[in-house]
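Quick log. Single chain, no ligands specified.
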Amino acid sequence: MQDPVYEEVHQGHTIKIYHDPDAEDPREWCNLGTLICWHRRYRLGDSHQYDSPEAFLRDLAGVSDQSDLSMDRLRDRAERKAIILPVFLYDHSGLAMNTVGFHCPWDSGQVGYVYVTLEAVRKEFGVKRVTKALREQAVDILRGETADYDSYLGGRVYGYIVEQGGEEIDACWGFVGAYETHCLPEARNAVPRSDPHAPPATGALTAYP
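-> predicted structure:
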């Protein structure tokens, strides 16, 4: 097995955190948004039939191919029907993705969009009108889904194994994002509770570069 990225002793048990070698693509999850990208070398995001960003915006906006609207006008029209965020890719010794852009103009640029139609928002939340607050909530969800995909692209998906006396007693995989945020707390919760009258355990931890 691969070496752990982090290890500690917690209440007499050893917790080991590993990279998840068989992590599931977050785009296979039940996402609110659709992530569509165009790239010459990588297949990114969700599958789609659009051969260009212009074709996507035209379809979403309901504008025919004969119209001569600019990309900005097309997006304005599309945003009447959907919440749309640009998606940027950084490609240098690995891939990174976000919705706000990167500071390196040579190795990064817009690669697509993440979006959800207003109709889908109304259906998801059971409302008749998408208010400003609900729109902001949907934007946060789209950013979060993009962040999950960024973690997947960057290999930041983890699992834990809990051991006692060298024997595995629990394990769980597929934690997306920094392991300190979700994976490690869940691993600690998986450790059987010790006798409340026993003396506190001495923790020893090791983080690997």
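The chain is about 25% helix and 30% strand.
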